[in-house]
Design a protein that fits this description.
Layout lengths: L2 E5 L3 H13 L3 E5 L5 H16 L5 E4 L10 E4 L11 H22 L4 E4 L4 H12 L6 E3 L2 H16 L6 E2 L2 E3 L5 E3 L5 E2 L2 E2 H4 L2 H12 L1 H9 L6 H15 L4 E10 L5 E12 L2 E5 L6 H22 L1
Parallel strand pairs: 1-2, 1-4, 2-3, 4-5, 5-6
Antiparallel strand pairs: 7-10, 8-9, 10-11, 12-13, 13-14
The chain binds adenosine-5-diphosphoribose.
Length: 307
């Protein structure tokens, strides 16, 4: 049976554990620094199994040794940006957290696949890869499935059709510089660009780019977690079931898209060994411009961090 560990028992972590438990994908360990938090949530989720009809074993712990021999580890631990806190401060704090977690993953679960969710995503996934010392294909980030899901949801709403028939594609950095791709989006195979006029598509693209911020603005504190946890579970299932799903993920580029040595959102094939293939899409001039701007920003932060 597979063993899945989720680091961070906050909104994203605990909701991910709930969804995974309901699918009975394997035994689950949830780790957090706060004493009692993962234990309490694990107990609650174990009892939910008697009502929701699942037998998944869920252990809450503050001790990393419990993640021993996990097949997959999901990092959702970190702090959210607080008022007055600069982006640099956030990067410093979260990279310390992610580096410490990654060292424990390398120690206790050296054969695991790692999905990072902690923001800023492209940077923290790089930190996780460096600090675990794992092959880059074994460490990747969750962003594109979420951003594409948001885009798909807005497309379905606009067309008044089922979300189930919408395929949307969003690549690029996770944040303002993501790149929704209408050309690679469709409804049951019908190209989106044949279904909606350009100005309507542009509005949906803009809403997708601001999708996370729109929710933060409404919640006032904290950020989205229902759609993020759903996205994590899609990726987890692809790895655990070795299903070779083609999904956008924050993957390590080694020459693809003209980029080297950074993590970036691109379509990949996901299976038991992690990122098994990276697909290169044809982009237009404007999209390449955003891609370069985004990758330069990521590169700058990484070189400052490593200085
Ligand atoms: N080790 C383990 N857990 C930690 C550590 C650490 N060193 N530092 C913080 N945590 C835990 C916190 O105790 C908290 O329970 O991480 C959890 C974060 O939970 P929330 O604050 O609820 O944040 P959440 O909404 O779950 O988001 C987590 O995912 O989407 C991203 O931007 C988001 O980076 C953020 C992450």
């Amino acid at each position: 049976m597979a063993k899945i560990s989720v680091i961070g028992a906050g909104n994203v972590g605990a909701t991910t554990v709930q969804r995974l438990a309901e699918l009975e994908l394997g035994e689950i360990v949830m780790v957090d620094v706060v004493d009692g938090l993962p234990q309490g949530k694990a107990l609650d989720l174990m009892q939910a199994g008697a009502i929701k009809d699942y037998d998944t074993q869920i252990l809450g712990s503050n001790d990393y040794s419990n993640i021993e021999n996990s097949d997959l580890v999901i990092i959702t631990a970190g702090i959210a940006r607080k008022p007055g806190m600069s982006r640099e401060d956030l990067i410093k704090t979260n990279s310390k957290i992610v580096a410490e977690i990654s060292k424990n993953i390398a120690k206790y679960a050296p054969k695991s696949i790692v999905i990072n969710v902690t923001n800023p995503l492209d940077i923290m996934t790089y930190v996780a890869m460096k600090s675990t010392g794992f092959e880059a294909t074994k460490v990747f980030g969750m962003s594109g499935v979420l951003d594409s899901g948001r885009f798909a949801s807005f497309i379905a709403e606009e067309l008044e059709c089922s979300k189930k028939d919408v395929q949307a594609m969003v690549i690029g950095g996770h944040g303002d510089l993501m790149i929704p791709l209408p050309k690679y989006s469709a409804v049951s195979g019908i190209p989106l660009i044949d279904l909606l006029p350009g100005d309507k598509i542009s509005r949906l693209v803009e809403r997708t780019v601001n999708g996370g911020a729109e929710i933060v603005g409404l919640l006032k504190q904290g950020s989205a977690f229902y759609a993020p946890s759903s996205a994590i579970v899609s990726m987890t299932e692809a790895v655990i079931k070795d299903s070779k799903r083609v999904l956008p993920a924050c993957a390590y580029l080694e020459g693809q898209y003209g980029q080297e040595g950074i993590y970036f959102g691109v379509p990949v094939k996901l299976g038991a060994s992690g990122v098994e293939e990276i697909f290169e899409l044809k982009l237009d001039q404007g999209q390449y411009k955003i891609l370069r701007k985004s990758s330069e920003a990521i590169r700058k932060i990484i070189s400052q961090m490593e200085a």
